[in-house]
Amino acid sequence: MSELPDFSDLRALYVNCTLKRSPERSNTQGLMDASIALMREHGVHVDVLRFVDLDVATGVYPDMREHGWATDAWPEEVWPLVESADVLVIGGPIWLGDNSSVTKRLIERLYAMSGERNERGQYVYYGKVGGAIITGNEDGIKHCAMDVLFSLQHIGFAIPPGADAGWVGEAGPGPSYLDPGSGGLENDFTNRNTTFLTYNLLHLARLLKDAGGFPLGGNSIAEWEEGRHSGFEPNPYGANPEYR
């Protein structure tokens, strides 16, 4: 193997968005575990959550107890792990060709925090890296990963190349990833993509951490609010339709 940097000061959070509560077996967790094992092999501190096990309220505010919910595990149990992570991997199943309802609820709660600032005054997810792991027995890996990864980059996560991995069996009812005879554990395409996903997440997280985060040039919220727009000029077509 080519020489690798030291990743042991990095933290990663894997959130499994299966619909199955613990201790029921999760095929998504099975594939996530392959990536987790690689990270831990390199000394990365990895936290793992099964989102459906937690009493997380539905909504797009940081604390839904302030918006009519009696309980909300997000502020105390989930957000501290997200905030401290250099890498976030969202894993989930495909249902009806799309991400699970649990995946969507997680993304909504991540979005709820996107207006917060980090210690450099940028949006809070700047400097963090995101990836997606998808499983199912129907088509839709790329569609589901596209949805997750677009959402993550939109709120500030950096996305490396090859930031998604997945496994699906034959279209229609059939064996799932961990089922005997499914071929999931031996699938070379899935194993390669999961390996590349893991290392590319680590490499980008390493680069960003060593750089002190994402550069401030051209994306300072404070400067924009003060009227300093980093050289941006309004489109002349907007002010003068006759401009050519």
UniProtKB/TrEMBL annotation:
GO molecular function, one term: oxidoreductase activity
Any one Pfam family match given in the protein's UniProt record, by short name: FMN_red
Stretches assigned to the NADPH-dependent FMN reductase-like domain: 23-162
Name listed for the protein in its UniProt record: Flavodoxin
